[in-house]
## 1
Amino acid sequence: MASSVSSVSLSSLPNFDPRQVPVQGVDSHLPVVPRASLQPVALRRRFASPPLWEPELLAETKFVDRAPTHASVLLPIVMREQPTVLLTERTLHLSTHSGQIAFPGGKAEADDADASATALRETQEEIGLDPALVQVLGLLPQYATGSAFIITPVVGLVEPGFTLTPNAYEVADVFEVPLEFLMNPGHHRRHVFEWEGVRREWFSMPYQDRMTQRFIWGATAGMLRNFYRMLSA
């Protein structure tokens, strides 16, 4: 993709609905990550000895004039029989990324030891996931959002059987999506939108669970796309 834009900048437009933007293409021609490669043993092996690979998305079109803020998110893979990714839906009143599907996480603090510490602390504060249940595998490349956040995705394996206590101010819902679904590029849809002469592009990965369609797009989809590139390399 030549460029992309964060969900915040587009969502601020009057009556903008990303679901209504036409799909320009679906990457069904790319290889699916094999199911065996998504199991915990294989994921540990991949991060212990990573392949040569290139991230596809590193930065969105910046639309705010302020100094960048460093943050970390946890890409939490729940070790079920078929692994899943734990995601959140942000509440509508938040000033950034309101109503969007996101990884748990947030801003770095001065006393955080590193990016992993930030991701684990913020995840516990946001959804109540005990850090003791998370085995950190490693980091994905930093991702710069249009809202001037420099995000470090931290990939971790999560022991099932956890109890969550979401922060009701920040989190409207917590749900799981099969990792196999997200690592199938046949579910990676490309969108293009032009506004004030600027061409903006992004991925979406809509997932239909039993009750709701989870419209994953923007930065979250971008980081998942980079994870796909690592696992398929």
## 2
Amino acid sequence: MDIEDYAWNKHEQKMKEQTELTHSNPKIKIIDNKELRNKIEENLEKLPQKILAQWALKVATPFLDYLDNHLKNDSRIELGIETLEKRIQGSIRAYDLRKIGFIVNELAKESETEVSKYVSRSFAQAIATGHMRGHAWLAATMQYK
């Protein structure tokens, strides 16, 4: 895979060229199967960023059902999805996606329950995967904080 397909971000491209895969040491409290987590990380590492962003969105969106009721039909959800899809297609820059990412992140600030906060943070991380690969893993693990 070309380095430009692996990562769209120059910093992540440089890191990939300089290091081999190292397994994560989560800073958040999760109870998981370390071997399974390592296997998932190894498989995610093989994906181009385009596919990784699609995966992150697929992982995060089912949990949107657990947003607080007043946020479930919020237009920022569709805005985030549409913007990430445009980034995946290459029709917008990372800068444009990041601006929308900050707007999407407002859902967490407006959440009243802890569950809604975690769900909206996970969703925001999925959207941010269009900027940097590292956000994909956070999109998948935010629910377990």
